[in-house]
Amino acid sequence: MTHVIYFSRSVTGSTDTVETAGDCLHTDLESMTEALTSRTIATRGQVVKKELRKDEADTARDAFARVYLIWSDVALLLVLTQSILP
User: Fold this and answer.
1) Hey, which bits of 1-86 come out as E strands?
2) Helix or strand or coil: residue 83?
3) Fewer CB within 10 Å, N- or C-terminus of the chain?
4) What is the pTM of this model?
5) Tens digits of per-residue pLDDT, 65-80?
6) Residue 74 exposed, middle or buried by CB count within 10 Å (0-12, 13-18, 19+)
7) Packing angle, helices 29-37 and 54-84, rounded to 10
């Protein structure tokens, strides 16, 4: 089954939209919010977390949505192809 996710304009503004996306992907709200609002930078023996600015979070959200939609389209095509093959 393919799920279409519509994210809100602000990633941090609507937790129910992020929660719906997390439900579709079988992950929790905290993980989804962290993935969409921060980035982790690993350097020599040190890990630094950085909060994203709004425009960076919007870009991360849009990129995630594009990847998810492409993945779901590929999954749908595989199912359709398997159903018509003998």
Assistant:
1) 38-43, 46-51
2) helix
3) C
4) 0.58
5) 888 888 888 888 888 8
6) exposed
7) 120
Q: Ramachandran region of residue 9, left (φ > 0), alpha (ψ -120 to 50) or beta? A: alpha
Identify the bridge partners of residue 77 per DSSP, sorted by sequence position.
Answer: none
Q: Average the pLDDT over 26-53 and give the result.
A: 85
Amino acid at 60: A
Residue 61 buriedness (CB in 10 A; 0-12 / 13-18 / 19+): buried
Number of H helices, E strands in the chain: 3, 2
| Coil/strand/helix, residue 41 | strand
Q: Which two tokens stand for residue 75?
A: 């999954």
Tell me which amino acid residue 3 is.
H
Cα 42 to Cα 53: distance, rounded to the nearest angstrom: 19
